[in-house]
Every structure is written in C-alpha cells, then in structure tokens.
C-alpha cells in the first residue's frame, strides 16, 4: 500500500498549489487526479487577481504565470468596470490565463519540489481512523496517509463521504458556455440584451469563449452545440455562424459552502468547500489562497513542529473569507439581471463606483487585497497581508516577498534590534533587520504608521506587530510556530 503523510484528491489549481506548498515544507505529498492527463474539457477559470499573484510572488514563481498571460488593469463588479491601477500593490492588475496553462505551471513547480502527481487515479472511497486515512481508488489500489485533503471540486466525493454538510442556495439561473468557432465576428464583451451573454477571446487561443444564459434552469441533459446556437439566437437573433465547439458545458449559480472545512484527519479546500456563480472570477483565486493558508500549517503538523490544533485555524480563517465571496457573488448575480428595474440599480451602483471610497472598497475586495484575519486587538496591520516593501538590509536591497520564498515565518525589525531573544524559534523563523519606512499604504485603510517590527506568517499575513520591546512577540511565535 503506497504511503504518504498527505494525500490530496484533485489535481486542479487548488490541489496543485497545496501540493507545492507541502513539498516546499519537505512533506512527502501525493496528488490523486482522476483525469488521465492535464487535458481539460468544459468551462474552467481564466485568470488570477492581485492577491493570488502576490502569493505566487511570495513563492518566487509569479513570473512563470505573467510570462504566459495577459495583464489588464480593469476589474469588474457584475460587469461594472473599475480601474485597479491605483491599488497599493506591485500587482495592481489581473492576469488572463486559462486554467490548463495555470495547471501546467503549477504541476511543474510541484514536481520540482519533489511532490508526486498520479493521473488516472479516481478515488472511490476512504475511511479514517485515529492514526490516518486509507483511500481506495476505482481500480482497487489503496493509499494510506496521515491526512487527506479533498480538492475534488463542487461535487466532491471526499466532502460527501465525510458527511460534511453543504448548505446554501439552489440555482436560479443557468448558462451555457463553449470554446467555439464563429464565422461572423461577435460584439466582444458582456451584454444584457434579452438575457446575459458574453463573447471573449483569450490570448494564444484560436477559438472564442461564448456564453449565453438559458431560458430555463431545469435542463440537466448533456449540453450540445445546438443548445448553444438556440440560446444565442434567443439572446441576439443570430448565432454568429457558430460552426463547431471544442466543448459545451452548463453551469449555474448554485451557492453552497461546507459547514466545516475539517473533520479530524480530512480537510476540504477550493470548490470542494465552496461553490458559487463564477461572476468576477473569484473561485480559482479563493481556492489557491485556501491552499496557501492550509499548506504551511499542515506542513508544520506533519513535521511535528505544531500540534494538530493548528489546523483548526484553517476553518476559522478561511470559512469567513469564502462566505464573503458567496455573499458578493449572489449580489453580483442579482445585479447581472436584465430589465428596467435592474438597469436602474446598475446605474446607481455605477455612480457609487465612480466615488473614491466605494471604488477602493469594491476594488480591494474583488482583487483579494482586503482579507483580514481576526487575531484580536493591536496594530492596524495585525491580520492583514504584508505589503511587498522595498527593504534596505545588511545584505543589500531586497523585496519583502523574497523573504517568503521558502515558506518560513519571518520577523522583520525596523531601525534597531529587538529586546527579545529569538534563538528558540530559529529553526522555523528567520530574522531580518531593515531600515524603517515612515508609513505603509494599505488597501482601504490608506497610510498606517510603521511598527518597530512585524512577525509575518509563511502565507504573508501579519501575526504580530509592535515596538522594539517585542511585548507579546513570544506568545505569537509560540501560537504559530511551536
């Protein structure tokens, strides 16, 4: 029976990102993917937001994605566009890059770090006991791991077999989407004549991405090119010479979230933990960030740096983040409707988005830069993402994100050494001295005073910020790294 400390079911972006994080921590991890290779059929994600690009930058691999995608500084909230160029981040833009390209890059990173990806391995069942989890595939192969993470999508077998509830809301709208060949050029972009529909062309692709809302939500048959042609004619009066499609798939606005992200030795991440209408492109981004939150924690538990109770913070931190994503996608879905009443509401929202504060708040939310974990009272930076500061250190100038490439915690001191002796945590946390900045500019908050020092977790969030006396730092270090 093959044994690995961590088994991941599902080799999409979430599962691959998690595997890469665990491999970086020195954990023997195996990904079990039911597809026989990385080929993807059907509608998948097509881009990354600012925060996802930041976490990839934190691992030193952002350029791999940027070199293959297309940068755009316009984000949108239900088709109401906003300029992201004034966001306080080095990645003040989104990246258009189809999911199969994203997976290829992540898979290469996983294998570089020693992770194993097993294609053609469809899981049929699992059972867990006090020491681990045994997974069975459809061909009868059994796998053993100390922990199992379900990254197997919205219809997650792992979630269902674990008995974790998946409450939420049923579908109210249904859409067809395809990569299709058109003989007549369509009106590119998003439209609301008749019903919502859209036409896009992605860089490096020969086909057009075509999407059209169906008249009914009850059709569950396998979608066809004829169905898409009929939906387009219903919306536009023409099918733009639709000849063929590489694939046609159907999706809807079913909105659900796992009641808990952990059941003893089984955890959930990505679409296995939360599903929603794909408006705003937040699904892949939320899943990758789930993986980055979980990866270092699970790595420390497996490596016996931390107790298993550290895994409870994964649900406590990420469940509210996804709940907010579900909330804003339901709002956007309602705003995405057609008719004079919805048009009046859209006009009102467009006016609000032209104002500075609403624009900043919506832009930061849609780009993933306003996430705030509740670590209690303290410095305004506590629980927020650390900005990628330009640091002047004894070893020369560097960017702060380079300090996170190996997924270790880091204490950065500004101006002078701390009173606290940090040698007890030296195996898990690095210490860097830098010249002090005067203030930091943060999304929504604006400028905040720079603390004397910060403790940054491997996922880039500030776990402690204070003065050079380091009051409370030892408690924070023990909480996260002991």
Automatic annotation (TrEMBL):
FAD-binding domain residues: 4-328
InterPro entries, sorted: FAD-bd, FAD/NAD-bd_sf, RIFMO-like
Organism: Mycolicibacillus trivialis
Cofactor: FAD
UniProt keyword annotation of Hydrolase present: no
Cited SUPFAM superfamilies: FAD/NAD(P)-binding domain
Molecular function as annotated in GO: FAD binding; oxidoreductase activity, acting on paired donors, with incorporation or reduction of molecular oxygen, NAD(P)H as one donor, and incorporation of one atom of oxygen
Stored Pfam families: FAD_binding_3 (PF01494), Rng_hyd_C (PF21274)
Regions crossing the membrane: none
Protein name per UniProt: FAD-binding domain-containing protein
Alphabetically ordered keywords of this record: FAD, Flavoprotein
Record keyword Glycoprotein present: no
């Amino acid at each position: 029976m093959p044994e690995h400390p961590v088994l991941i079911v599902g080799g999409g972006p979430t599962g691959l990102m998690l595997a890469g994080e665990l491999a970086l921590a020195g954990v023997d991890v195996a990904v079990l993917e039911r597809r026989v290779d990385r080929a993807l059929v059907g509608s998948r994600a097509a881009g990354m937001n600012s925060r996802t690009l930041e976490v990839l930058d934190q691992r030193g691999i952002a350029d791999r994605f940027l070199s293959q995608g297309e940068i755009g500084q316009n984000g949108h909230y239900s088709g109401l566009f906003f300029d992201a160029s004034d966001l306080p981040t080095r990645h003040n833009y989104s990246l258009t890059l189809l999911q199969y390209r994203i997976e290829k890059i992540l898979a290469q990173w996983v294998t570089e770090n020693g992770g194993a990806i097993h294609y053609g391995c469809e899981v049929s069942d699992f059972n867990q006991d006090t020491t681990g989890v045994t997974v069975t595939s459809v061909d009868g192969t059994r796998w053993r791991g100390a922990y199992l993470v379900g990254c197997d999508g919205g219809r997650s077998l792992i979630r269902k077999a674990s008995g974790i509830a998946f409450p939420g809301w049923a579908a109210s709208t249904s859409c067809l989407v395809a990569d299709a060949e058109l003989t007549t050029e369509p009106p590119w972009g998003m439209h609301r004549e008749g019903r919502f529909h859209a036409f896009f062309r992605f860089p490096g692709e020969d086909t057009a991405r075509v999407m059209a809302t169906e008249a009914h939500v009850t059709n569950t048959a396998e979608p066809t090119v004829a169905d898409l042609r009929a939906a387009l004619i219903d919306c536009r009066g023409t099918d733009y010479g639709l000849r063929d499609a590489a694939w046609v798939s159907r999706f809807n606005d079913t909105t659900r979230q796992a009641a808990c992200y952990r059941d003893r030795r089984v955890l959930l991440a990505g679409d296995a933990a939360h599903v929603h209408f794909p408006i705003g492109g937040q699904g892949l981004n939320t899943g990758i960030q789930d993986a980055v939150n979980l990866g270092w924690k699970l790595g420390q538990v497996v490596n016996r740096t931390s107790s298993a109770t550290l895994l409870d913070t994964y649900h406590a931190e990420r469940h509210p983040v996804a709940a907010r994503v579900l909330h804003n996608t339901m709002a956007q879905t309602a705003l995405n409707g057609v008719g004079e009443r919805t048009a009046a509401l859209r006009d009102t929202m467009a006016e609000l988005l032209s104002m500075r504060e609403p624009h900043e708040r919506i832009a930061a939310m849609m780009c993933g830069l306003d996430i705030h974990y509740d670590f209690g009272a303290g410095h305004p930076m506590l629980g927020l993402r650390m900005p990628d500061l330009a640091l002047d250190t004894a070893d020369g100038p560097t960017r702060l994100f380079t300090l996170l490439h190996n997924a270790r915690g880091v204490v950065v001191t500004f101006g002078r050494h701390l009173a606290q002796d940090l040698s007890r945590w030296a195996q898990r946390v690095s210490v860097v001295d830098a010249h002090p900045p005067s203030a930091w500019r943060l999304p929504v908050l604006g400028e905040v005073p720079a603390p004397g020092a910060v403790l940054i977790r491997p996922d880039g969030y500030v776990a402690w910020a204070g003065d050079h006396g380091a009051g409370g730092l030892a408690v924070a270090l023990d909480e996260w790294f002991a």
